[in-house]
Design a protein that fits this description.
Blueprint lengths: L1 E11 L6 H9 L6 E8 L19 E5 L4 H11 L2 E6 L5 E2 L3 H11 L3 E11 L5 E3 L10 H7 L8 E4 L3 H4 L10 H12 L1 E11 L12 H14 L1 H7 L2 H17 L3 H15 L4
Parallel strand pairs: 1-2, 1-4, 2-3, 6-9
Antiparallel strand pairs: 4-8, 5-9, 6-7, 6-8
C-alpha cells in the first residue's frame, strides 16, 4: 500500500463510446496522486483499441479479463490496486474535478473514518446539475442504512483499501444491488464520512446497464434482503423488513415473475404471523 495514493478502478463492458468521459474526469482531478486502473470485462467493441499507442492514456493501467460481470471486474481491479484509498467508478459516470481532493480532506479531518462518499448529481438538459438524492447519513450508521435501504452509488463512495480484508470482495453472485451490498458491509463495521457537495455525475443512456433489466433488478433486490434479513430484524425490527419485502413483491409483480412473487408473499405472511 502506498500512503496517500488514491486508486480509481473503472470496470467496463462495451462502453468504448462513453468511457473516455469517465477516464478524463479522473485524469483532470485537482488531486494528483492517483492510480487509474481500467478493467475491461471482455468487451467486444474494441475498447482495447483506445489504449493502444494512445499517449493521452499512457498513464493508465489497462487490464483485460474474460467476461464475468461487473463485480468480477471490480475484484480484478481491487487486486491490482496499490493505493491507500480506492474508488470504483462506473464507466458511464464521471467525477467532478475536486471530488478526490474533498474525499482525502475528509479522511484527514478524522482518522477514524474508513470510507467517504459525496452527493450524486444528474445533468439537466442545459448542462447544469441537480441532486439525484438528498443523502445525509454519516458516522456509524448501519441501522440507518438498513432502514433507508441504500447509502449511495458505488461510483461515489471511496474506502480505505485495507477494509476489504474484513468485509471481503464484491459479491459476484448478486445480479444487481451489488452497490447496496458493499455499502451495507462497509457501514456495518466502519465509520463513514460524508462530503455534503455533489462529487460526481451519474450517467444515463450508455447501454449495458444492470438497471436496464427489470427482472435482474428484482432478483438482486430479493437476494439482497434475504442476505441481510437477520440484521434488519435485529437492528431495525420486523416492520422495516416487511417494507423492503413488499417492494420485492411489487417488483416481481410488475415483471410478472409469479414464482418469485409467491415466494416473497409467503415470507411476508410468515413474518407477519411471527414465524421467523
Amino acid at each position: 500500500m502506498e500512503k496517500d495514493l488514491f486508486s480509481v478502478v473503472i470496470p467496463t463492458y462495451n462502453r468504448r463510446h462513453v468511457i473516455s468521459r469517465a477516464i478524463n474526469s479522473v485524469l483532470s482531478q485537482s488531486y494528483r496522486n492517483i492510480e487509474l486502473i481500467v478493467v475491461d470485462d471482455g468487451s467486444e467493441d474494441d475498447t482495447r483499441g483506445l489504449f493502444i499507442d494512445n499517449k493521452e492514456f499512457e498513464s493508465i493501467l489497462y487490464h483485460y479479463v474474460n467476461h464475468g460481470g461487473a463485480q468480477k471486474a471490480r475484484n480484478a481491479g481491487l487486486n491490482l490496486a496499490h493505493g491507500e484509498y480506492v474508488l470504483f467508478l462506473d464507466s458511464d459516470d464521471e467525477l467532478l474535478p475536486t471530488c478526490i481532493d474533498m474525499m482525502v480532506n475528509e479522511y484527514n479531518s478524522d482518522h477514524s473514518i474508513d470510507s467517504v462518499y459525496g452527493l450524486t448529481g444528474l445533468k439537466n438538459a442545459d448542462g447544469s446539475l441537480r441532486l439525484a438524492r438528498n443523502d445525509f447519513l454519516k458516522g456509524n450508521v448501519y441501522k440507518e442504512v438498513l432502514e433507508q435501504g441504500y447509502l449511495t452509488s458505488s461510483s461515489f463512495i471511496s474506502m480505505r483499501r485495507s477494509i476489504f480484508k474484513e468485509i471481503g470482495d464484491w459479491d459476484e453472485l448478486l445480479p444487481s444491488s451489488q452497490d447496496d451490498d458493499i455499502c451495507f458491509r462497509i457501514a456495518k463495521k466502519f465509520k463513514i464520512g460524508f462530503v455534503d457537495k455533489i462529487v460526481g455525475v451519474y450517467g444515463v443512456g450508455a447501454g449495458n446497464q444492470i438497471g436496464g433489466s427489470g427482472k435482474r433488478v428484482a432478483i438482486g433486490w430479493w437476494m439482497l434482503w434475504k442476505k441481510y434479513e437477520k440484521d434488519v430484524i435485529s437492528y431495525c425490527g420486523n416492520e422495516i423488513l416487511i417494507k423492503h419485502l413488499e417492494e420485492c413483491a411489487s417488483r416481481f409483480k410488475v415483471e410478472k415473475m409469479d414464482v418469485e412473487y409467491n415466494e416473497v408473499v409467503n415470507r411476508l405472511n410468515s413474518i407477519r404471523g411471527g414465524l421467523i
